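Researcher: Structure prediction, please.
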Amino acid sequence: RYRFNGRRVRAWCTDEGIKLEDLAEKLDIPFGTLKSWVYNNRNISFNQACAIADAFGKPVDDLMIRLCA
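Model: Predicted structure follows.
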């Protein structure tokens, strides 16, 4: 099992000098939706995680945390 790594998204935003609001606009999604994914308050689909990774030119695997069995 895997869990979405919202901390990584925040770190990428910091590295790029952008806010989550800017990322939400770039992805054409509501800010509240992105924030709920990043803070793990709402499940994110694989396709949505891919879109975030693509926005940063990173592999989607970097956004996944493997959970212990």
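Model: The CA atoms of residues 37 and 44 lie 6 Å apart.
Researcher: Thanks, that helps.
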